[in-house]
Amino acid sequence: MLNTSNSDIRANLSQGNTSRGLGLAQRQGKLWSNLKEVCDLLRIPTALSGIGDDYQFQHMQFKSGQRVHTIGQPFDMLYIVYSGFLKTVIIDESGNEQVVGFPMKGDLFGMDGIHGKQYSTETVALSNCEIILVPFKSFLAVGRTNAELEAAIYGVLSRELVREQLLIGTLGSLSAEARVARFLVSLSDRFADMGYSGKQFNLRMTRQEIGNYLGLTLETVSRTLSAFNDVGLISVDQRAIVLHDIPALKTLRRLPPSQVRAKQQAAKAARAEAAKREEEPVIVG
Amino acid sequence: MLNTSNSDIRANLSQGNTSRGLGLAQRQGKLWSNLKEVCDLLRIPTALSGIGDDYQFQHMQFKSGQRVHTIGQPFDMLYIVYSGFLKTVIIDESGNEQVVGFPMKGDLFGMDGIHGKQYSTETVALSNCEIILVPFKSFLAVGRTNAELEAAIYGVLSRELVREQLLIGTLGSLSAEARVARFLVSLSDRFADMGYSGKQFNLRMTRQEIGNYLGLTLETVSRTLSAFNDVGLISVDQRAIVLHDIPALKTLRRLPPSQVRAKQQAAKAARAEAAKREEEPVIVG
DNA sequence: CGGGAACTTGATAGAGCTCAAGCGTGGTGG
DNA sequence: CCACCACGCTTGAGCTCTATCAAGTTCCCG
């Protein structure tokens, strides 16, 4: 089923929140970032004037499974991912989760809390994480120090708005295969942005979480990944992914029927034919 | 099919962008709004200090079908709906539209353009509209005059983020019936906010546009509305809607099978039974 | 009054969900 | 260090919901 051996893939998958090979100080995480570091993380051009060390932002460690903020919790803080992977979910009146995003390095989250003075989402660490805490008051104060910087901050909010619109477009109009394909490409892009390989990486979330995010069941996600694997678009083994044809994944709308699928199709057609014939009066010689 | 006569419904549906009965000056629209009026529209508390007449925002008229901004157009302006109804769409690489919102009175739009310096969406008037133009520079300048006001402005962006998350939740996890039901309730809420009736109103968009927004086909929307009408949850006649049981619509997950549906179900089951019996060896007396 | 767009309704098919069973893997405790 | 267990993943079979295709009807606008 796999075109590449597991060990080959895994050996090259070192991005993400791992403590192997780091010194003690780094493993424990740094404690503070200044404004310039924060801007770099958020991909705000730091050529902007007047960025100094006036502001320091505290870091905080979260273990896998811990919640950074919960629904209904009073809002007073924004968060930036320094390292690690998380998921942001909303929960409806009957307790069902809906994943609305997978924050990772450089992503700002918690903005949903500004309106209404409390968070409407809940963000959970999928791996051990290091998060930069940005009190909303400081956030506002920083904007006031510099007009360009302020515009850039609005730009970060806007980026999130656009990201969500893209997801709406995906959920509203694409087939399961296209959704999964684009999800892989979007992960690829984000890993590439972070300086890791965009071609091979480990998924940080379960099939269940991917499916929830894409409006699909975990079985459909699993089947779709297997189908991509079978036609050589990707290699999958559990969480390990290799993308073999990113352009094709980008534009994929529906997978051409594979041989296995063709067989199933044929079998189905044959069955239907047989049923039809049974319904017709049979002339017995 | 309709529980209420058309004329009864229509007679009460006077909200929205209509020029009947208004004087000349109003029909042509006012030309400028000051900051206080803009804040009121955006539902920003105006108890805030220091809101004066320093800023004036120009109005602009759009006829039904006209575009307020288009995809790729350089960004330098935000827009607030003063009156009328619009739709905001994204367009994918193969030219398919996806409706991501229906801006109406008091809604801010165009924020997707901040990031990337050009609009990623296109907003089209569904009726004649009056739009307040807010140059992004002024928008920033207003925030700088007053800290509370600035927080409120971020709140408006955040509100939009939350609205989109809600839509993601709807698209990701609800049945067609639940999607349509919640869509009606959300329209109801917004009409009520605007001071109109939340119980009866006219849809301003086609079935096609509703379906596109909800990730459904126009036929499914039409059938679902008819089904709601049949069980007495609502009355529908073309664009005219009366909601008879808003709480039920709010929590609806799946419609209990109606008599017609039950008949179809029974017929189907019977057919399946018949097919089964045919497959079994028949003992002929 | 005519033409086109919007809407309704029906029949049918297929994509994806549900239910179910089995397997791999990583973590844990003896 | 090994064995076990729970969780995540895969795969299969059947069914359901919704899309698709196809007429008709109504309404609105010129």
Describe this structure in words.
2 copies of one chain form a homodimer. Chain A has 285 residues and is of the alpha+beta class. Helices cover 42% and strands 19% of the residues of chain A. Chain A has helices at residues 6-11, 24-28, 35-41, 136-145, 147-173, 176-193, 207-214, 218-230, 246-251, 259-279; strands spanning 32-34, 56-62, 67-69, 77-83, 86-91, 97-101, 108-109, 122-125, 129-135, 200-202, 234-237, 240-243. In chain A, the strands form 3 sheets. The first copy, chain A, has a 5-stranded antiparallel β-sheet. In chain A, strand 11 and strand 12 form a beta hairpin. In chain A, helix 4 (136-145) packs across helix 5 (147-173) and helix 7 (207-214) crosses helix 8. The radius of gyration of chain A is 23 Å and the shape is globular. The N and C termini of chain A lie far apart (49 Å). The interface between A and B is large, with 49 and 49 residues.
Helix run count of chain A: 10
Give, in order, the helices and strands of chain A. Answer: HHEHEEEEEEEEHHHEHHEEHH
Order of neighbouring strands in the sheet with most strands of chain A: 1-2-9-4-7
Q: Compute the CA-based radius of gyration of chain A.
A: 23 Å
Q: Tell me the fraction of residues in β-strands of chain A, as a range.
A: 15-25%
Largest sheet features of chain A: 5 strands, antiparallel
Summing up helix and strand content along with how strands pair, one would put the structural category of chain A as: alpha+beta
Helix content of chain A: 40-55%
Quick one: overall form of chain A? globular
Oligomeric state as shown:
homodimer
Largest interface, with counts of residues having CB < 8 Å to the other chain, equals:
A-B, 49 and 49 residues
Task: Report the mean per-residue pLDDT of chain A as an integer.
Answer: 85
Low-confidence stretches of chain A: 1-25, 281-285
Euclidean distance between termini CA atoms of chain A: 49 Å
User: Quick one: how many beta strands of chain A?
Assistant: 12
